[in-house]
Specification:
The complex is a heterodimer of chains A (115) and B (114). With 115 residues, chain A is mainly beta. Chain A contains no helices and 11 strands. The chains are: A mainly beta (115), B mainly beta (114).
Amino acid sequence: EAQVTQNPRYLITVTGKKLTVTCSQNMNHEYMSWYRQDPGLGLRQIYYSMNVEVTDKGDVPEGYKVSRKEKRNFPLILESPSPNQTSLYFCASRLWGGSGNQPQHFGDGTRLSIL
Amino acid sequence: AQSVTQLGSHVSVSEGALVLLRCNYSSSVPPYLFWYVQYPNQGLQLLLKYTTGATLVKGINGFEAEFKKSETSFHLTKPSAHMSDAAEYFCAVSEGDNFNKFYFGSGTKLNVKP
């Protein structure tokens, strides 16, 4: 089954304790992206990747890092989490193909609470 | 940066009534446009998309949307609401080099009354 898998689904942690949210897709998609969803703000793009070793900033990259060492994986790293990063996070992937008209496939989300 | 506006954070309709969810974008260059639906505790699912060609786009579950360049709008409609349509709906725009950047509206929660 084609899917985007995020782990963990839920995490409660404390300020400053480094954490990684993993994202894996099994569709051989070139493009992957991370979003955060906050009430009243919709989804905002954090980082995206067009392919292995190619990443770029979205709208709200501050406080986050990403890496793309393999095509299927795109982890989101919070080196020193702060309470304002408490949010619902989504990973998504799509075929890239250069034309941009392919829809994104979303994971089920990771709810992060940073105390 | 692109701005996507969804009028009405909550919309309530009766079962069988018309559904109209509004979306306006700010780009002067036509972007690619999408509508997604989110059910509770789930990720987003694509309803429909406009890239080029016919401006009236049909999607899944009986939804459709019309791209109006002069109004920079991409409103979502469904002739007859069903209880299972209750969810949150997001309008999204992609633009930039190879359309890699995505911008979402703030979402509209649709409530369907029996």
